[in-house]
Structure formats: C-alpha cells, structure tokens
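Researcher: Here's the sequence for the chain we discussed earlier.
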Amino acid sequence: MESSQPSPPNELITVYLVFKQDQNSVKELESLFWKITDPDSDKYQQWLTRKEINKILKPHSKCYSLIKKWCEKQPFKKVIRLKNIVDRQQKFTDDNIDSLQQQLESLVVITPEFVIDYYKIPNVKKIGLPRNDVSQSSIQFLGEYYDEKDLQKYSKAVNIRYRPLASKHILGGINNQSNPGSEAVLDVEQMSGINPLAENWFINYESGVNPDGDGENFYTTILTLNQLDHLPQVLSISYGDPEIGL
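Model: Thanks. This is the structure I predict for it:
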C-alpha cells in the first residue's frame, strides 16, 4: 500500500464540512412531515420546497461564524465559501385488455381503488388535488423499464386518467420499452392508479455498480436528486439488495 503524499502547493482542494443540525429544527421538520402526510391534517399534501426545507434546517449564523474563524486559524491559504447543503404483473395486450378488465371486476385483486379504500387515502378523482404541481416518481435500477403502451392500457382497465410521462421527466438513463421489467411496470402503474392527477417521473439506471453488473446505484441516485431544482414530491423505490450493503 502506498503512503499518501502531500498535495502540490498550488492544487485546489475541495473540503466538505458537515454541520450537525439543531435538534429543535429537526423536530420541527419531522412534525411538519407527519402533518403533511396525515389526511386529517389541515396541512395535508402541502409539500415543502427544497428552499423551505433548507430554511428550517439551516444552521444558525453563529455556527458559520465559528467554523469560519476556526478555518482561518488553520494553515489554509483561504476560506472561499461555506455553503449549506442540506408476483409478476401480467402484461396488457390489445387482445386481452377486455378480458383483463372483466377479471379486475370479478376477482379479488389489488387494484388502486382497493388500496385507496383500504388505507383511507383521499380519492383525488373525486376531490381533486390541493395544488396543481403535485408530482411523483418511480426510481428503478438494473435496467428495469416501464412500457408506456402498457400504462395506457392499464389506465383503461382500471378506469383512471392516462397521463404519458414527459421525456424531461425520465432521468438517469434510457427507458427501453421493448424490454419492460415487472418492478418498473408495477410501480409506475400502481403509482399512477393511486394518484392519476399527479405529474409522473421515472428515474432509471441501466447497469449496476458492481463488476458483475449487480448492485443498485443508490449513491448516484442521491447525487442526481441533489442536483435537481425541482424534485418529485413522492419517490417510490424498488430494490432487492440487502440493506447492509448499501
């Protein structure tokens, strides 16, 4: 193993400092989280923007001042800036769409309507949305793709509004619709069924992070999301790796 060597004196090095957040601010954000996700709360689905969240969690100005003073006493040439960073689903075809719709009506299956009724989720088809810019996203890994035509036929089968995904809302990789995966199809369609009025996003990574092609890109996903000015308000994630390996 080679020992580390001093950096050249003119090399620019970026150092990230992680500030512990004020516990009262964390409690305030957690309290808001439960209110926003509680159908009985007057703040239900009043989602916060990244700017609003940062405002709650932003460290006190004294914290920045103390850290900056400490840095200036170190052998650093210059402190430039401190920044606050806070079972398989059956595929629909033209031939079986009518028979599948009959099955949905006659069999006990998990449909969006069942999920909405069972968990007492507000039915947006009846009451609408509290605001127009509600969005939701499915995050997939290892080449899991969804099928837009299948989504359209699924929407017809369960009697929901069909909303195609905009190309600008497909992030992280391609969506090979000729080879859809059951996880992606299930997530996108169930998500669309539970809230058919929301804007849908799809985030996908084609290959894994390990040499054998396995392993979900959680780190890359987090970096990608952190660079977005506008995040989907709901993220649905499917993965199969042991959490100890994340």
